[in-house]
Write a structure and sequence with these properties.
With 249 residues, the protein is of the alpha+beta class. The chain has helices spanning 20-30, 80-101, 107-120, 168-177, 185-199, 228-248; strands at residues 35-40, 43-51, 65-69, 72-78, 132-140, 144-150, 156-158, 161-164, 208-216, 224-225.
């Protein structure tokens, strides 16, 4: 086996130690709509953009952010069917942990278990890696607010702020300019909206929806959708900020 033949199986390393199928799965995530996770001083926010590719689609279909349990949410970046498979595994792991220990699984424990599941799909020639990166946001009394991202390789990392998808470069630039740990979740909404808008700035002719959820001190530390009026208001303010920045340039 030589040359491009190394990419025919996930179970085969190239001579440079690379697994091409995992890299291809990561590329699928990089070409996806943008997803963001941010920890603030009073909670954690998950945000996602969703392109409305048809006028026939109803609003709020093809969700990218879901509940795992009352205090834990998961956002999916990349191939949605792959992400939903991982989501169902996460729900099963969380339910099993709750049944066994009578307490909810922390994001640390849950991300470990889900990452092992994702990694298993990079080890055998009869399967392919998941073309999805998953974000887990949670609260528990021992560790407080947590935010993790699991990559298609099975690697998982804890973050203060993280992003994936087409607009990741724009979002990372905004992360470096602003310290979200000094903002409340409500104050951070406008900047989340700004990043999601800028993520598809070059595709202005296409219509997008914005999905946001949060876990905050103000909502009983439960994973819930951000009220639509707050999202709409944040988007309007974000558009004004972008206009001001463009005028300033």
């Amino acid at each position: 086996m030589s040359g491009s033949m190394y990419d025919l199986s996930v179970a085969t390393y190239s001579q440079e130690g690379r697994i091409y199928q995992v890299e291809y799965a990561t590329k699928a995530v990089e070409n996806s709509e943008t997803v963001i996770g941010v920890k603030c001083k009073d909670g954690v926010i998950l945000g996602a953009e969703k392109q409305k590719f048809s006028r026939l689609l109803e609003d709020n279909t093809n969700k990218r952010i879901y509940n795992i349990d009352l205090q834990t949410g998961m956002a999916l970046c990349g191939k949605l069917p792959d992400g939903r498979n991982i989501l169902q595994r996460a729900k099963a792991e969380a339910s099993q942990y709750q049944d066994m220990y009578a307490i909810p699984a922390s994001a640390h424990v849950l991300s470990d278990r889900v990452a092992q599941y994702v990694h298993a799909y990079t080890m055998y020639s009869g399967v392919r890696p998941f073309g999805s990166a998953t974000f887990i946001a949670s609260y528990n009394t021992f560790d407080g607010y947590e935010l993790y991202m699991i990559e298609p390789s099975g690697n998982k990392y804890a973050y203060h702020a993280c992003t994936h998808g087409k607009g990741r470069a724009v979002c990372k630039s905004e992360f470096e300019r602003r310290n979200f740990k000094d903002l409340t979740c409500q104050e951070a909404l406008v900047y989340i909206a700004k990043m999601l808008i800028l993520a598809h700035e070059e595709f202005k002719e296409k219509k997008y929806e914005y999905e946001m959820t949060w876990i905050t001190d103000n909502n009983g530390r439960k994973h819930q959708s951000v009220p639509q009026d707050l999202i709409n208001n944040a988007v309007q303010q974000a558009e004004q900020l972008i206009e001001q920045d463009q005028i300033g340039e």
